[in-house]
Amino acid sequence: MSDTKKFDVVVIGGGPGGYIAAIRAAQLGFQVACIDEWKNEKGGPAPGGTCTNVGCIPSKALLQSSEHFEHAGHAFKEHGIDVAGLSLNLPQMLKRKKTVVDQNNQGILFLFKKNKVSFFHGRGSFAGAADGGYTINVAGASNETLQTKHVVVATGSNARELPGAPFDEKVILSNDGALAIDAVPANLGVIGAGVIGLEMGSVWRRLGAKVTVLEGLPTFLGAVDEQIAKEAHKLFTKQGLAISLGCKIGKITNDGKSVTVEYADDKGAEQKAVFDKLIISIGRVPNTIGLNGDAVGLKLDERGFVVVDDECKTNLPNVWAVGDVVRGPMLAHKAEEEGVAVAERIAGQHGHVNFNTIPWVIYTSPEIAWVGKTEQALKAEGRAYKAGTFPFMANGRARALGDTSGMVKFLADATTDEILGVHIVGPMASELISEAVVAMEFRASSEDIARICHAHPSLSEATKEAALAVDKRSLNF
Prior knowledge:
Blueprint: E1 5-12, H1 16-27, E2 32-36, H2 49-54, H3 56-75, H4 90-114, E3 118-130, E4 133-140, E5 144-153, E6 157-159, E7 172-173, H5 175-178, E8 187-191, H6 195-206, E9 210-214, H7 226-239, E10 242-244, E11 248-254, E12 259-264, E13 270-275, E14 277-280, E15 284-286, E16 319-321, H8 332-346, E17 360-362, E18 367-372, H9 375-381, E19 385-391, H10 396-401, E20 407-413, E21 419-426, H11 429-441, H12 446-451, H13 460-470
Parallel strand pairs: 1-2, 1-5, 2-3, 5-16, 7-14, 8-9, 8-14, 9-10
Antiparallel strand pairs: 3-4, 4-5, 6-15, 11-12, 12-13, 17-18, 18-21, 19-20, 20-21
Family: Belongs to the class-I pyridine nucleotide-disulfide oxidoreductase family.
Binding site for NAD(+): 192-199, 215, 283
Cofactor: FAD
C-alpha cells in the first residue's frame, strides 16, 4: 500500500461524464485524479467507459462499415459503379472497430496528460470520510489510497439482463457481445426495439443475417414523435428488419449453440422462435457495484440510481454524481454536459445543463434525431401548436446522394412561433439536429430558421423548408 495521495477533486469513472469532469476541473486549477477500471485486451487502461469501449464508438464504427458493405452490394450499381466478387472480411471489420476504440482510449489518456490529470487504473471506492473530505481506495495492479475534498461519481451503467436469460456473450448477448460476433449469424433475434436493438439489428442485417426484433411495447419507438416513428418503421421493415410489437416474452432456452424464445404475440397467440444469437437490449441499470457508498452513507433510490438534486449534488457534502448513474437520459453527451457543469460548480461558477435541449439520435439508416417536445406530448399538454414537414425526396442534395427517405418536422407554438420540437428521420439527421438545438437554446421561432440563408444544395435546406412549412409557405414542395 502506497502513501495517501491528496487531491482537490477525485472522479470515479472515466466515461464521457467522468473524464470530461476531470479535465474541466483541472482547467479550473484543481489538483484532479480520475479513476477508471476498463481494460483493453492486454490488460492496460481503456478509459472512455461504455461509450468508447462497447457503446457509442464501436457501434458507429460497425454501422459505418456495414453501411459501406450494403452500398457496395446494392447502391453502387445505380451510381455506375460495378463491384465484382464482393465479399465480407468480418475479421478486418472487427479489427478496424478495435482500432477506432483504441485510438479513442489513447486520446483520453493523452488529454489527461495534457491537462495534468492524475490517472489511476483500477476500481475506485469510498473508504470513509476524513479531514473534511473523503478517502478513496483504488484497487488495481497497485492499490492506492487517495484523499480528496470533492468526489464526482461517474460510474455509468450496465446492460439490463432479462430474468432467466443471463448474458453469456456467446449466444445471449448484451451490447458488448453484439459488437463482437465473429461470424454473421443466419438467424439473429433481438429483444427490444430501442436504440441499441435497432442499431445492432441493422449492422447484422446489412451483413447478411435474418433479423427478428421482438418488442414488448405495443408502439414502435414510443419516445419518438409518432409521425417520425411510423415513417421509420415503414423504412426499416422495407429494408428487411422483421419487427414484432406487443410481444410478451416467456421462456428462453440457451443450449450453448442456439437459443429458443417462447413468446406471445400482440394477438396473444403463442409463438416459438429459434435463433443462432440473441441480443437483449431492454435498457440499462446504474452501475454502483463496488462503489461502497454505504461507507459514507451515499443515498441511492429504489432503482439503484445515486440520488442528486438539480445541480448533481448528492446527499453528502462535496459529493457529486453525473451521467448514467443519476436521473435523466442515459446519453453520453448529457453526461459530458453534467461533468462540465459540476466542475464549474465546484469552482463556484454557475454550470448549465438544459434538459429541454438535449438531442437524441438513433444511428440507423436512415438516422433518427430529435430535440424538444413530440406532437403527442404537446397534445397531451393541451398546448396549441403549428406543425411543418418537408420530405427529403424534394431535396436536391438528398437526390444526388441517392438517399431521399424520411423528412424534417418542426413544431412551434401557435401564438409565439417559438420552436418547441424538431424531429428528423433521414440522411445525416445526427448532424442536422444541431441547428435545431442551437435555435431552441436561444428560443428561436420557426420564422427565424425560415429566414436564415442555407447553402444550396445541402440537406440543411430541408430544415429551412420544414420551418417555412410551419407557415404553409414551403418553396420546394
